[in-house]
Each structure stands twice: as structure tokens, then as C-alpha cells.
Amino acid sequence: MISRIVTLTGNVLQPRNWEVRLGTPLCDLVALGQPKADTSKYLMGGPMMGFEIPDLAAPVIKATNCVIAGSPTLFPPSPPEMPCIRCGACAEVCPHELQPFELYWFARARNFGKTQEYHLFDCIECGCCSYVCPSHIPLVQYFRFAKSEIWSREREKQAAEAAKARFELRNARAEREQAEKAERLARASTARSSERKPASAVASAAVVEAGVSGALASEPAVASSAVDADAQKKATIVAAMERARAQRAAVQPRNTGQLSAQQQREIAAIEARRAALQAESPPDTVTPPERAAE
Ligand code: SF4
Ligand code: SF4
Fold first, then answer.
1. 33-53: per-residue pLDDT in tens?
2. Where does this protein hold [4Fe-4S] cluster 1 (predicted)?
3. Residues 69 and 30: beta-carbon distance below 8 Å
4. Domain 1-77, CATH 3.10.20.600 — does that match?
5. Does 87 count as an annotated binding residue?
6. Burial class of residue 142 in the structure, from the number of CB atoms within 10 Å of its CB (0-12 exposed, 13-18 middle, 19+ buried)
7. Domain boundaries defined on the chain
8. Is 123 annotated as a binding residue?
9. Class of domain 78-186 (CATH, top level)
10. Which residues line ligand 2 (CB under 6 A)?
């Protein structure tokens, strides 16, 4: 489809149907109809359902069925909007048997849920209700406003749901990756421990064997070293006692300078006996000199 039939009518000298290529600027199309001097606006669509074209640089599209040149005579300004008197005229002319006055109230109160309950989206925006309304209420404009608000909220809701789904998917992916990583690490750790196990088992077995054999071999050594330590301890004690005795003997006053020859002979005999006794008795049972002298 590269062209379509477009009706050009209204405040023009040459009203007729034109076959127009899609994409043709509307200003070129309306120029073919020779608009009159008092033309004030252009509508796309019918006189009741059409909407004003804001800029004639817009192109002809697939939905462009009619262009109406308007003037203040053809489209006089709407009288001021008055309150709804609930006459029901709008409901009588509705081709879809809707309740336009109810839809109007709910749309005005921004109660969009109720407008949907009253089948707002069944409205084809024919404009009959607005046309017959004695209060000059632009009912179709209210219905369009309600529909656009519902669509906008629906888009926001879908965007929020999509964001929520993305968030949940992301969380699930993160958890799955974390679990997979933990599993990989656990598998690697198990593999490493199983690789290390034979070597460590051999090493530990060797250590155990070495420990057992070492323990068995070291028992006599430990026993002999204990005996040596006792003997060394005793020898040290005996040596210390000898040193102490020698010191005592060295510092002991003899008082033999003033003695007679007889007394010195007796002392010499006593010393000889003591020495003989010390030579006979074992080192650890040495008789104290004082006792021996007695
Ligand atoms: S025709 Fe207008 S005034 Fe009458 S009920 Fe409908 S909206 Fe209200
Ligand atoms: S504009 Fe909608 S509510 Fe009004 S008469 Fe047409 S279909 Fe019915």
C-alpha cells in the first residue's frame, strides 16, 4: 500500500476525493482543494470524531481518511460546559448502549476502575453523546482522557512487572552462580584432598612405623641414660662432700702448737685411726670426724 483515497472537504473551493501517496505533506493536499480565506483550522477525520491537525507539515498516513477545512461558520465555538442534568439523552443515542453520563462521572472523578466496569473501552468515540448533550459536555474528550490514563497506568504496571521479573531473574541467576561456584570449590577441594591422601597416608604410616621402631630401639638407651644420670648425680654429691670436708679440715684450728710431745703423739695416733676408718668405710657412709674421734 503506497497510496489511499482521502476526502478533502469543508471550507474549500474544490471538495473531492484524492488518491494521495502515503507520506505526502498535508499542506500539499489541502492546497489542491483551494481553501477559502476564512479557513481557521483543519480536522483529520469526521466532524464528530475528527481531531484538529496541529501542523500541516504532517504526512498522509494509512489512517488519513478525511481532511476537513474548518471555519468559524462551519465550526462555531462550543458553548460553555454546563453540569450534567442526567437527562439520559446521551445513553439513548449511544450505538453501543453504554451509559455515557456514568462514564463521564467516573472519568471526571478519576475513578478509572469504575469506568472500565462500565465498559469504557467499548466506546468507539463516535461523538453522538456529545452532540446531543444539552449541557454541552465534551463527553468524548472525557472518555479519551480516561482511556489514555488507563493505558499509561497499564504501561507503568507492565514496566514495573518487567522490572520485577528482571530483578527476580537476576537474583536467581546470582544465587545459581553462587551455588555453582560453591560446588566447583567443593569439588576442587575434594579432588585436592584425595590427591594428597595417598602421599600423606604413606608418610604418616612411615612416621608411625618410625615412631614405633624408634620407641622400641630407644627403650634401652633411655634406661641406660637414666642409670648414667643417677651415677653422675651421686658422683657429683660425693665430690661436693669431699670438697667440703677438705675445706673444713683446712680451716679447722688444730691448737697443737702448745701441746706436749706425748699429746702430739696421741693426736697423731687418732688421726691415723681416723684415716684408716675413712679408708675402710664407703664414701656415702663416711663417719663424721667428731664421732670417729670419740
Ligand atoms: S446528555 Fe449530557 S446532561 Fe444528559 S445525561 Fe448525558 S451527559 Fe448528562
Ligand atoms: S462516544 Fe462512546 S459513549 Fe458516546 S455515544 Fe459514542 S460510543 Fe457511546
1. 999 999 999 999 888 888 899
2. 84, 87, 90, 133
3. yes
4. yes
5. yes
6. buried
7. 1-77, 78-186
8. yes
9. mainly alpha
10. 93-96, 98, 100, 123-129, 139-140, 143
